[in-house]
Amino acid sequence: MTNAEELALAMDKNTPANILDELTQSDSENVRMMLTNNPNISAESLDKLSQDENQFLRMRVAAHIKVTAETLAVLSKDESGYVREFVAEHPNTSVTTLVALSEDALVVSWVASNPNTPEELLQKLSTHEDENVRVSVAFNANTPIKLLNTLSKDESKEVRVSVSVNPRTLVSILDVLAKDPHEEVRAAVLKNPNATV
Predict the structure, then answer these.
(1) pLDDT tens string 52-69
(2) In angstroms, rounded to a whole number, what is the distance separating the alpha carbons of residues 123 and 36?
(3) Which of 46, 26, 56 is nearest to 7 (CA)?
(4) Torsions phi, psi of 119, nearest 5?
């Protein structure tokens, strides 16, 4: 099969999954890359592509909606920080993998923003020395209200801005943030659907 024929099959939305699976072995990087755009690609094919030498292809696998928690667990140990970022924010990433990635300084802020991150880990990350991690916790739609209340008093105005726009933030917290000395925080409160001001 020629490279052009392989590429045409990889791009065709009617190509059966078993043919797409065969194409994961293609010598053409472009063909393998196009496979990740095909809606018929299987989780098994994505698992094969997760071992590709091309970092950008592994990134596309890590971002794919059909990728399994098992494949993401393997990719969480990838040498590329970019690949690990996609794993850290993926909705299919398991709690076990998220907990492990929370120790990775390059991607911990992505873990803090993942809606699957457990409450205990969000609690731990809410006191992280890196402001970006605390911002992500404050922005996470699953952060408990008690934790949002604590973060609303954070020394970082960026963290307080994130609390201000979080849809879970209570009116009582927003009322206090509406009087924040920083205009950015006060402006963010106005964007919250719960705001009464």
Answers:
(1) 999 999 999 999 999 999
(2) 36
(3) 26
(4) -55, -40
| H-helix or E-strand spanning residue 96 | helix 95-101
pLDDT of residue 197: 64
Of the two residues 182 and 195, the one the predictor is more confident about is: 182
Q: Report long-range pairs for 190-196 (Cβ below 8 Å, ≥24 apart).
A: 191/164, 191/165, 192/164, 192/165, 192/166, 192/167, 193/167, 194/167, 194/169, 194/170, 195/171, 196/171
- Predicted TM-score of the model (pTM): 0.88
d(CA 90, CA 79): 18
Q: How far apart are CA 85 and CA 166, in angstroms?
A: 22
Return mean pLDDT, the chain. Answer: 96
Burial classification of residue 141, based on how many CB atoms lie within 10 Å of its CB (0-12 exposed, 13-18 middle, 19 or more buried): exposed
